[in-house]
Amino acid sequence: MHDCPIYVTGMMESGKSTFMTLLDGHPDLLVFPQEPNFGRMLEQQFTSAEDARRWSLEKSDFSKSGSLRGIEDQQESAYDHRKYLAELEHALSEKFAPREVMIETMRAFAEASNQNFDSRKYWVFNEPSRARMAPWLFSTFPNGKVIHLIRDPREHFAAIKAHHRQVDADMGRAPALSFSMDWALGVTQAFENRGKFGASRYLIVGYEDVRDQKEKTVRRIADFLNIEFDPVLLHPSKVGISAATTDGRITESEIGKWIQPLTRREHILIESLCGDVMLGSQTGYRPHLNSALQKIVNGLLRRVVYASYYGKRLLKGIVSPDALHELSRIDRAANNVYAFRL
């Protein structure tokens, strides 16, 4: 089991947390209940066990909070955070290689939640998508697997707007632009990784599949992991405690809800920047933007990116005044050639 991690990844609001609650109850899986910050850990480059121990105990978000979102009132019956910290501190007295830190983090969690680490086939953790994480994981854990969650970009951005009040602060002065570039890059990378590492090791799952065809999708995931399908996979839990409320965001009532929350500019930016990926990557998502408007907007967007970064690198939430001026021109173009089929 030590060499068998499952890395669940995707952008925020792609359904990762809810997806983890579906895996939680299976007897072959040890599921870490929150993001363990392994991606951030890899960036630290520890040089001693003291560095690894201090970061794991003091800097990791989970170590600092110890709170299991959704079951806070019940978690004491299933999880002992003090025991987790004590087990981890002891285990990292001499170890500091990232591989060892990850394994000992999972082992400490298993002890603190009364689960048998050695009897589980896989250990499962959830992290935001990072470019280097999958290649590193496969080189370090040859038996590891990745499940990458994606979502229709229009519905995805609408969910981010609905659930994150600080979206402007988090994504810069043009959040739809920043999101669209991140989405297109992330989905492209997901399909490239599947091609590079193979479909037996890298699985792409649509948020909509989990929502609309839960049992079929969960059976597909069980086959991917080579575990027996168990009805418990259809019922969300966290450390074995029912977490039905956390499943509330994946409901049929969300279908098509992106239409109202998005502004006209956001519609256009998202479909212009994500349209080619939507059409060309087997996502099943289809843009509504007509070709005439898309040509106009794509031309303006090239000038936006150039104005922000002189065309040398991707926009990352930082938009210059010149670029904002170009964005205002998109609004005027939209007024002349607006053609969404809503």
Strand content: 5-15%
CATH class categorisation of the largest domain: Alpha Beta
- Report the C-alpha radius of gyration, rounded: 21 Å
Q: Globular, elongated, flat, extended or rod-shaped: what is the shape?
A: globular
- Count up the domains: 2
**Element order: H for helix, E for strand:** EHEHHHHHEHEHHHEHHEEHHH
> Roughly what is the average pLDDT, rounded to an integer?
79
Query: In terms of structural class, how would the helical and strand content be classed?
Result: alpha/beta
The low-confidence runs, each spanning 5 or more residues with pLDDT under 50, are: 168-172, 245-259, 308-320, 333-342
Q: Any idea of the CATH topology of the largest domain?
A: Rossmann fold
| Strand element count | 7
- Please, what is the CATH homologous superfamily of the largest domain? P-loop containing nucleotide triphosphate hydrolases
Helix proportion range: 40-55%
Could you say what the CATH architecture of the largest domain is? 3-Layer(aba) Sandwich
What is the spatial order of strands in the main beta sheet?
2-3-1-4-5
How far do the termini sit from each other? 50 Å
Structure, briefly:
The chain is α/β, with parallel strands linked by helices and 342 residues long.
Report on the architecture of this protein:
The protein is α/β, with parallel strands linked by helices and 342 residues long. The chain folds into 2 domains: 5-171 and 182-254, Rossmann fold (3-Layer(aba) Sandwich); 264-337, no CATH class. Helix content is 51%, strand content 9%. The strands form 2 sheets. Strands 2-3-1-4-5 form a 5-stranded parallel sheet, sandwiched between helices. A two-stranded antiparallel ribbon has the order 6-7. The longest helix is centred in the middle third of the chain and has 23 residues, at 175-197. 43% of the residues are buried.
